[in-house]
Write a structure and sequence with these properties.
single chain; alpha+beta; four-stranded antiparallel β-sheet; 13 helices; elongated
Length: 492
Amino acid sequence: KKDIALYQDKIVDDNVKLDNAKKYKELEKDLVLLEKRKSIESELKGLETENKKYEKINDAIMGEAIALEKKISESMIKLKSAELAGKVIHSDNPVHIIDVYGKSQTIAQGDTWTANGYMKIEIKDALELEVKSNQISVDEVKSTLEEASKELAALLKQLEMASIIDAQVALQNKKGNDIKISSLQKQLKDLPNDEKKAALEEEKIRLDGLALEKIEVLENRIKDAQQKINEIRIDMAKLENKVENWQKTYQSFDELMQYFGEVFVKKNNKKDELSKLKALPPEYDSLEDYLSYIREMRHQKEDHLQKIQQIKFEIERMMDQFPDRSIEELESLIKEETRHFENAIKKAKQMITIIETFEATIELLENDSISPLQRKFAENLKYITDNRYDAINISDQMDVNIGNGKENLPTHLLSSGTLDSASLAFRLALIDELLGEKQGFTVLDDSLVNMDEERQSRSIKMIQDHSKKHQVIFVTCHPDVAEELGGNKIRL
């Protein structure tokens, strides 16, 4: 009982230490979180300061700026697409050329020049001439360009940005900062605040003054002490039970001594019986060794009998699985299955050869499919436009840009006549590349409507050449086009 009380005191003392150790561990976590809060608050302050620089920028203003920039870009492209060119053949005085932007240059005799959509030619005291392209409304395009440029400059000045790219970068930075600020603010909700800081630091000072041990050491020590208490209580119960049994069996000390005398007599009688038994075999030093040997033999016998039973069971199972067919039938079946297997192998090898050939063909097509098409497309367009457009650029996504040696234009900026010319040139080139030497047919639906007379005539000549190899079905509501195309005409 004294030992139990001693262990219980140790358990109480270790539980107090364990509680302090756990508190210190939690305290360390809280202090780390507190430092994390400081770091997040510092980062938040920096992000909010940076976002103040971008207060005037938002999606609506950026949309307006991008729309203005698009107007400027489209106006400049339109002016470039209506390019004018000239050459001074003879002039006694200097020739001055003023372009659509108001820039002036002096041209000497024999020199050439170009201008976008508009030019003003001046010869002092002799000539003042304006030339405008009839493909676009130069004044309207110029007005749109100037207004959009002024509006964009004013907008950038309001935003305090040097360019629209700087404004776009600033807006992206602002949006990124907003996302970071929102995330950091959510993190702050789960972190300790400054009010808890003082209490944490005070508790740390208190715990630092204690000789704290590891939690695992304390838990194991408490567990061992409780185990000792349980073992002592079991021993106490055994001893108390033994004393109680003795009291029931032997009412007094004299009766106990009488029992010992009887046991002594029985012991001597057993010795006499042992002396009359046959002696142990000489290879055994004691009776215990001999009995151990007998037990081992019995175990071996039981193991052998069990193995014999398992073998009999396996023989019976194998007998049940024997096939009902004869050996001759099984041999014939093996030959048939072997033949099927060899045929399957042969087919598999053939399939592998087909797949390898197919993959090699696909690779060849992928590596060399766009270049011939691009060349044929360029040749057709060059012929239809009488050498005005002779450069074609087709991207991997099949986006088409058309050029004239100086610049490339996307298809959405082409005039309707040029777009129809490019469409016809591409379709005929594509059919020639796809069919190769094979004959096919082509269906065209009024594909010459928007072309001028010269391009229309060249396109009809190209369609007639195409019809020499492929059947052409041309649908039109213009009788003069049908007459010029020739062939078999069907009126509906």
